[in-house]
């Protein structure tokens, strides 16, 4: 198996090293793992692509490249430049430092990379490590992902739904905020929503007198709807959420026929 890995935390991020370990075990001794990751952190860029400017790409080592672009850019670089002569069988993105459950998935560059791969017709999975009081002080804060990443991916590749239609399914996996020993299993889960927990801004004035705005986050351990990704994560389960890039609100189409 040929696997392309990327992330949004940057090419030197510890989560990417965890993903490289998982990907090599998945690819096997006869497989290949290629890395094309952002040269610098790109958290929160979503599915952004560098449409109006070029990006520099540098070879760091054998099958390892850094690109001055977004995670989605890195997927494009991997598919159409670095691996253009033999495309990957699978794209893996992560392991993100922090969860990409609930509304976080909309902003996530980690998820954006998997989305771009799916749009390009390549099976893809985003992987993220949730943090909380039970795991944030561990020597290995990626322990749950490191231990359970490979068996979760193997099960998903074997039992998951993989479509080749226009908006093919890709997957968003979140490992719970617990040590590996505290993980209870895997749950198929829908995307949740943390009510009244969205991003905001906080103004600051620099010594120069210029006014700046810092984007602010919110607590991540608030409950979401039962059975959702964040809900099962907080109960100790790995969430696996099938996603598509199709943004149509299909449930509203029939009612909207009234305007015709």
TrEMBL record:
Catalytic function, reaction form: a ribonucleoside 5'-phosphate + H2O = a ribonucleoside + phosphate
Positions of the Survival protein SurE-like phosphatase/nucleotidase domain: 3-195
Highest taxon of source: Bacteria
Subcellular location: Cytoplasm
Key words, A-Z: Cytoplasm, Hydrolase, Metal-binding, Nucleotide-binding
GO molecular function: 3'-nucleotidase activity; 5'-nucleotidase activity; exopolyphosphatase activity; metal ion binding; nucleotide binding
Gene3D superfamilies assigned to the protein according to its UniProt record, in alphabetical order: Survival protein SurE-like phosphatase/nucleotidase
Residues binding a divalent metal cation, per UniProt: 8-9, 43, 96
E.C. no: 3.1.3.5
PANTHER family: 5'-NUCLEOTIDASE SURE, 5'_3'-NUCLEOTIDASE SURE
Protein name: 5'-nucleotidase SurE
Organism expressing this protein natively: Roseovarius mucosus
Gene name, Swiss-Prot/TrEMBL: surE
């Amino acid at each position: 198996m040929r696997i392309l890995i990327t992330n949004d935390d940057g090419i030197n991020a510890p989560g990417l090293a965890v993903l490289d370990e998982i990907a090599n075990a998945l690819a096997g001794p006869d497989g290949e793992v290629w890395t094309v990751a952002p040269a610098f952190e790109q958290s929160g860029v979503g599915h952004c692509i560098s449409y109006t400017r070029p990006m520099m790409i540098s070879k760091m080592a054998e099958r390892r490249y850094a690109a001055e672009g977004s995670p989605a850019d890195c997927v494009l670089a991997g598919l159409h430049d670095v691996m253009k002569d033999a495309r990957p069988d699978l794209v893996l993105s992560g392991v993100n430092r922090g969860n990409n459950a609930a509304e976080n998935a909309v902003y996530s560059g980690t998820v954006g990379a998997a989305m771009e791969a799916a749009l390009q017709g390549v099976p893809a999975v985003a992987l993220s490590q949730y943090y909380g009081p039970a795991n944030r002080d561990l020597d290995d804060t990626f322990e749950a992902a490191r231990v359970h990443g490979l068996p979760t991916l193997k099960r998903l590749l074997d039992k998951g739904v993989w479509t080749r239609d226009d908006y093919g399914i890709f997957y968003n996996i979140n490992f719970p905020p617990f040590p590996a020993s505290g993980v209870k299993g895997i749950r198929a889960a829908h995307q949740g929503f943390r009510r009244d927990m969205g991003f905001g801004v906080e103004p600051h004035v620099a010594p120069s007198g210029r006014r700046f705005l810092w984007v602010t986050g919110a607590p991540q351990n608030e409950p979401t709807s039962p059975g959702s990704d964040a809900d099962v994560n907080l109960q100790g389960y790995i969430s696996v959420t099938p996603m598509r890039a199709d943004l149509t609100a299909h449930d509203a189409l029939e009612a909207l026929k009234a305007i015709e």
